[in-house]
Amino acid sequence: MDIQNTLRDGLLTVVLPAYNEQDSVPLAADTICPLLEGEGIRHEILFVNDGSRDGTWNAIKAQTARHPQVRGVCFSRNFGKEAAIFAGLAQAKGDCVVVLDCDLQHPPEKIVEMYRLWQKGYQVVEGVKVTRGKESPLHTLAAKTFYHFISSATKIDMSRASDFKLLDRRAVDVLVAMREKNAFFRALSSWIGFETTQVEFEVQPRAAGESKWSIRSLVRYAITNLAAFSTAPLQIVTFLGVLVFLCSLVLGGWSLWQKISGQALEGFTTVILLLLLIGSILMICLGIIGYYIAKIYEEIKDRPRFIISHECGGKQDDR
After folding, report:
1. Residue 46: what pLDDT?
2. Total domains, the chain
């Protein structure tokens, strides 16, 4: 690995997606700005308001008045966290970009460590979780299952992966240039390669407010990203087909043996059960295939990932 012996310098952009985080926005700005200023790191803070329904956008505008390094962009509606991250990458002016949660569960002090590693020549610095913080056993089990599937699909260990990453400008440009609409940042930022290292961190309690992720939204998020980055669900269709074929061979052999031995067939119950089983499997397979066709339909429409309605801070008018 070709790592520079002399430290490089450059502008750091900190991207913070925000959805209904009116209480977290001022805390994030007041924590990150003094931290980076104290370390002598040139920086800008970019909040991305993902169609929040509370006072998040007003809070962002208030921070642009207090901190000249703070900028903000506002979506026309809620497009989701992945869209907010990619909007931040597209709007970032820095030579390197850090993405972290607005609620400060990703510890801001680790930004400095990431930046120093970037100065040495690393192009991707991944934040990996030592612990997952306080969450329910069901949530932990679901997360481990999801990342097991993703890791198998990508051949990259994502068991401790997070959205907390630093990306060099070259890596950012590669990600922004990708045209897929259902992009999974956490996986794509590892998939692109480049000279990579890791920084371990412990998930912190939320700085303010409560999590906006319900079980339903987490399940939808997992299914969308699994389909976006893996064809594993389609392989389930093949597996179920082979399973039904093997079962048909066994039952066919058993029925033939009964016929040869002259035993009476109890056919009605067996036929009904087989019809229910095969019909259920066929409907599941059609559902999986239909989901992928729907995603293909979304991609070929080529609609933008997000729509920005307002900007503030920097040289933008405060609107």
Report:
1. 92
2. 2
* Same domain assignment for residues 52 and 100: yes
Same domain? For 153 and 265 the reply is: no
Pick the most confident of 163-167, 181-185, 196-200, 311-315: 163-167
Please give the Cα distance from 317 to 82 (Å, whole number).
Answer: 26
| Structure token digits, residue 113 | 């460590």
**260 part of a folded domain:** yes
What lies within 8 Å, CB to CB, of 46 at 6+ separation is: 13, 14, 15, 16, 70, 71, 72, 73, 88, 91, 92
pLDDT given at position 318 = 42
What pLDDT is attached to residue 83?
Answer: 85
Residues 113 and 187 in one domain: yes
Mean pLDDT of 235-262: 68
Range of the domain at 57: 12-210+304-313
Q: Are residues 153 and 242 in the same domain?
A: no
Same domain, 186 and 269: no
What average pLDDT score do residues 204-211 get? Answer: 60
Higher local confidence (pLDDT), 107 or 257: 107
Which segment of 38-42, 58-62, 100-104, 278-282 scores lowest on mean pLDDT? 278-282
